[in-house]
Amino acid sequence: MNATLKHPIQLTSATFDDNILKGKKPVLVDFWAEWCGPCRVMSYVLEELAQEIGENATVAKINVDEEPEIASRYGIQSIPTIIIFKDGREVDRVMGAVPKKVLNQRLAAVAQSS
Known about the structure:
The protein is an alpha/beta fold and 114 residues long. It has helices at residues 16-21, 37-53, 68-73, 100-112; strands at residues 9-10, 27-32, 58-63, 81-86, 89-95. The termini are far apart.
């Protein structure tokens, strides 16, 4: 068994398209900012989620203050906003801090809708 811990990947405008639009598995992207309290709470949830889902999906984060053009492209108006992408398309969106169980259920539903 691989003991390597999996963490959310940090996306930038340079890495977004390759990781999201060309990805072969579902990608959960957390749009967040350093100053956002609920975003800090979600960072712990996403760390756990990334380790639990392993290679079945990718968990990623994008800082809206550092990458405003991507936030604008997806109409992010409040944070945290979590978007699940599949085959390069947005298939689900969750706004606000939510329990890990909710994200697990949403990801599972996307994975099953192949």
